[in-house]
Design a protein that fits this description.
Elements lengths: L12 E6 L3 H4 L10 H18 L3 E5 L11 H8 L28 H5 L4 E4 L2 E5 L11 H7 L4 E6 L5 H11 L3 E9 L4 H9 L3 E3 L1 H8 L1 H10 L1
Parallel strand pairs: 1-2, 1-5, 2-4, 5-6, 6-7
Antiparallel strand pairs: 3-4
Helix pairs in contact: 2-8, 8-9
Length: 224
């Protein structure tokens, strides 16, 4: 028998995609995170599954001001010295086209930096986070509460930093949590054990999609 406190609730689930932006993802990009481009094919399938069943998707992003004032302390000096990374309005700050409802959608940096979410689909949004975790100084918790979400599926760029922090913040708020392993870059064995120890369920993309419903699973399998 499963543990009802941590078992994902399919009907009240949201997909959180962390920092899958061009500057972090593309081969040879200014801050390429190895493995992120490979994960995009799996994230795309998760996005398609959530769209099909009409459940919420939040693309969480970073934006760094050119003067470094909005940047984490550990990266501020390199931005002040001229490194251009996820600058508002730049192509490098944009989401990967594969994950957008339309490739013509671009970030509304002014709206996002004001703390508001940019809606890009009937149940799909982009949200800016100022630091590692998606819940820190953002409207994410309120947004998920308004959508009656109690379960989050987390995936995206660079597990040791932003996905991991987001997971721990979600745990502190008593969300049921799933990590999509093949849809997350820079994942390692010790992390999987640590996540299981705090009640996070570890699934691959096939398992996540199957949990959304059989029709969704079969249709997405047919796309490949």
């Amino acid at each position: 028998m499963g543990d009802e406190y941590i078992t994902p609730d399919r009907k009240h689930s949201a997909l959180l995609i962390i920092d899958v932006q061009r500057d972090f993802t593309l081969i040879g990009a200014v801050a390429e995170i190895p493995g992120t481009l490979t994960s995009v094919q799996y994230i795309k399938r998760l996005v398609q599954g959530y769209r099909e069943v009409g459940l919420p998707i939040v693309h969480v992003i970073r934006l760094y001001s050119k003067d470094g004032s909005s940047v984490d302390l550990c990266r501020r000096k390199v931005i002040e010295n001229g490194k251009q990374l996820v600058i508002p309005g730049s192509d490098g700050a944009e989401l990967m086209d594969e994950l957008k409802p339309s490739p013509h959608i671009r970030l509304n940096s002014k709206l996002l930096l004001s703390g508001n979410l940019q809606q890009i689909g009937s149940m799909e949004w982009i949200m800016y986070k100022p630091r590692w975790g998606a819940f820190y100084n953002t409207k994410l918790e309120m947004h998920l509460q308004n959508l009656d979400v109690n379960t989050v599926v987390v995936c995206g760029c660079n597990f040791p930093n932003c996905p991991r922090t987001t997971i721990y913040e979600a745990s502190e708020r008593d969300y049921r949590i799933v990590l999509a392993t093949d849809a997350t870059s820079v994942l390692y064995d010790r992390a999987l054990l640590e996540l299981k120890n705090i009640g996070v369920l570890v699934m691959n993309t096939d398992e996540c999609i199957a949990s959304l419903g059989a029709s969704s699973y079969s249709k997405i399998q047919d796309i490949q």
